[in-house]
Backbone:
């Protein structure tokens, strides 16, 4: 892959997304592609006019275009719907791995990096539209945990597993997310373990998998986002799992058939069922049968009863 020019100071905040992309070029090219896409989108918001920034962003565009051409048969890159499901599933698995390690009391730099990487991958999901409430909460928790555990390790303290008891603790940890804290996600640590092979076997209790963040939000398991200045490439508005599907414009005049049992469904219901099946297909790519089964059951329930559960 072609190398990028030196990153301008005005775009420094996207360097960790680019670093994550490099780390995933061989592990998961789809994740790497969307990390670079997010870095491009964010970079254009930061600085699209200075000569240095334009040179860098044009080079990044060229790389993305080349990757897209080389993977024209990869549906996860050519279809944002499939891509969003894959990136979301991967981000949740990294998040769940870090949470399991945290709850088991295994505190180290690799856990910090896993939480921090999960938080960045949740950022990447904004490529596809507004985050669902669950993903938004998981993102907040992951970034907080990365800062909190790092701070404890730096100070020679033993972190508390799971969520803390007060908002003040959480806000203090998030507020302490300085450049030094962010840096631990990339300097002096190994890559987070591949969630497809390192996540522990399921426990019968869902709470063993997910944090229960303080003050009212709860993370839940995945169900399965006239001048020479640059213009951002268009992105779709496909939402990640757990958000209602939008009715495509092309389906506005379509009248769906009535399924057995006389349950009246509209086009939005059918599109949602299609999404659930896509999520199940993406889960199978990671040999994640529980998530695939859960999404297929929801699709079947929606088509037969009009409700997902």
Residues:
């Amino acid at each position: 892959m072609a190398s990028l020019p030196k990153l301008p100071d005005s775009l420094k905040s996207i360097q960790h997304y680019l670093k994550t992309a490099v780390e995933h070029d061989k592990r998961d090219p789809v994740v790497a592609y969307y990390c670079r896409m997010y870095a491009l989108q964010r970079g254009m918001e930061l600085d699209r006019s200075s000569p240095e920034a334009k040179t860098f962003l044009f080079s990044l565009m060229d790389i993305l275009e080349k990757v897209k051409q080389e993977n024209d048969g990869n549906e996860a890159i050519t279809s944002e719907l499939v891509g969003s499901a894959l990136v979301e599933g991967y981000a949740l698995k990294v998040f769940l791995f870090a949470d399991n390690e945290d709850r088991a009391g295994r505190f180290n730099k690799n856990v910090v990096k896993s939480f921090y990487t999960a938080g960045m991958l949740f950022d990447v999901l904004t490529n596809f539209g507004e985050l669902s409430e669950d993903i938004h909460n998981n993102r907040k928790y992951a970034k907080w945990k990365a800062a909190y555990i790092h701070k404890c390790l730096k100070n020679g303290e033993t972190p508390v597993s799971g969520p803390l008891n007060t908002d003040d603790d959480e806000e203090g940890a998030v507020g302490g997310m300085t450049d030094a804290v962010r840096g631990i996600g990339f300097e002096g640590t190994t890559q987070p373990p591949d969630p497809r092979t390192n996540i522990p076997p399921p426990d019968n209790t869902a709470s063993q998998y997910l944090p229960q963040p303080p003050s009212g939000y709860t993370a839940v398991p995945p169900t399965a986002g006239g001048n020479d200045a640059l213009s951002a490439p268009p992105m779709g508005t496909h939402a990640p799992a757990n958000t209602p599907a939008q009715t495509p414009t092309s389906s506005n005049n379509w009248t769906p058939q009535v399924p057995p049992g006389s349950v009246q469904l509209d086009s939005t219901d059918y599109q949602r069922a299609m999404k659930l099946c896509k999520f199940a297909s993406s889960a199978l790519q990671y040999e994640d049968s529980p998530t695939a089964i859960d999404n297929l059951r929801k699709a079947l329930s929606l088509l037969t009863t009009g409700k997902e559960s």
